[in-house]
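pasting for the record
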Amino acid sequence: MQRSHTRRMVGLLASILLLLFCLLFSITLGAAEITPSEVWNALFAFDGSTDHLIITTVRLPRVLLALMVGSALAVAGSLMQGLTRNALADPGILGISAGAALAVVAATFLWGTLPIQGYTWMAFAGGAITAITVYTLGSLGRSGITPLKLILAGAVLTYLLSALTTGMLILNQRTLDEIRFWLAGSVAGRDFTVLLPVFPYITIGLVIAFSMGKQITALTLGEEVAQGLGLQTRWVKAIASVVVVLLAGSAVALAGPIGFVGLVVPHLVRFFVGVDYRWILPYAAVWGALLLSLADLAARLVIKPQELPVGIMTALVGAPFFIYLARSKVKQ
C-alpha cells in the first residue's frame, strides 16, 4: 500500500513538472518566436518592450486560461462519471456545456455585451437547468436511470439547445460577430480582466471536488454499498452536482463549449491510478490542463500564422475515443 501511494505521488509530481514545462514552452511559441530567457525576463524583469508585452498581456493569460479550463472540465467529467457510474458522462455529451452556451448567447442576444460575471452566472444557470432536465429524462420509464438513457437524453437535448443557439445567431448578426469564435471553443483573446473574476469559482469547485474523493469512490461501488458505509448519498450527489455545474459553467463562460476533455482525461487517469477518486481527481486536474494546453499549442501552430479554435483540436482526439467507448462500454 505504501509503495502504491509513493508511486502515485511521484507520478503526480512528475505530471505537474511536465505541465509547467508545457506551459513555458507554450509561452515561447506563436506568431513571434520568443526565447525562454526572454520569457523569464518578461515575468521577473519587465521592461515594457514589445516581446514583454506580448508575453504578459497575450500569451501568459492564454496559457493560464487553458490550465484553468482544462482542469475544470476534466474534474467535472470525472465527478460526472463517478456520480452516474457512466463511462460516457461528460459536460459536453450530457448537454451541460450546450445549456451553458445557450444561456450565454441568450444573454448577449437580449442585453448585448455583459461583464464576465454576468456571462458566468448565466452559464451556471443554463448548465444547472440542463443537468436537471437530462437527469429527469434519463430517469423516465420502469427501468429507471441507465447509462444509455442518460446519453440519449443528453444527445437529444444537446441538439435542441444547439439549434436554439443557432437560431438566435441567425436572427442577430451582432451576436454572431461577438461570440462566433467563442462558440467553437477558444482560449484566445482573453486577458486577466476576464480570468480573475472567474478564478475563485474554479478554485472553490476544485477544492470541494478534491475533498470528496473518498465519498465519490464509495458511490461508484453502488448506492446500497455507499449507504451501508454510512454515506449520506443524497447530500454527496447534491454537492457534487453543484460542483460540476460550477466547474463546467466557469469553463464555458471563459472559453466556450470545449468538448471531450471531461470524457478522455478520466479514462486515461484511471488507466494509471485505478479507481480511487482521491487520486483520480487531482490527476485529472493536472492532465486536463496538460491536454488542453497541448491542444491549444497545436491549434496555434497547425496553420501558422493563423490559428484554429482549440475546440476543434480536442474534437479530433475526443470523437474517435467516444466512438470506441460507445462500442465497448454502453449496455442497454
